[in-house]
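Tokenised fold entry reproduced for absentees:

. . .
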Amino acid sequence: MSKPTKSRAGGPGAARSKPLARKRYVCLLPLQLASRFEALHEAYPGKKRSQLLEELLRLGLSEVEQAWAGAAATESVFRPDTRQPIYLPTGPFAEFHSLVQKHHLALEHEFAGADDPQAAYPVDDYALNAKE
């Protein structure tokens, strides 16, 4: 993580350019993990806790994807016209990415406003927080 740069309230870094999910994630951390996180927050005083969590999640999920991609067995099929092999990912890596796509569509559908023409596409009757 790089050291934070200060931005003014109306400056270019003030507004987020990426859409945020409407779902809020809340968790209680074990004491050891919470103290490590607070130490990280103190080391980067210009960053908000939410920004640090976002970066940590991004890095952690990238590590998981890389580990699964390396362990994934690949299935090969051949293109009928050229007989060149096409390698298809299988195992936990492929399953993870199909689940990412499923959740991305559901979150995107939830995020879309009523005036958005693409908000009406089907999401296979999937709803967030269906059991909660």
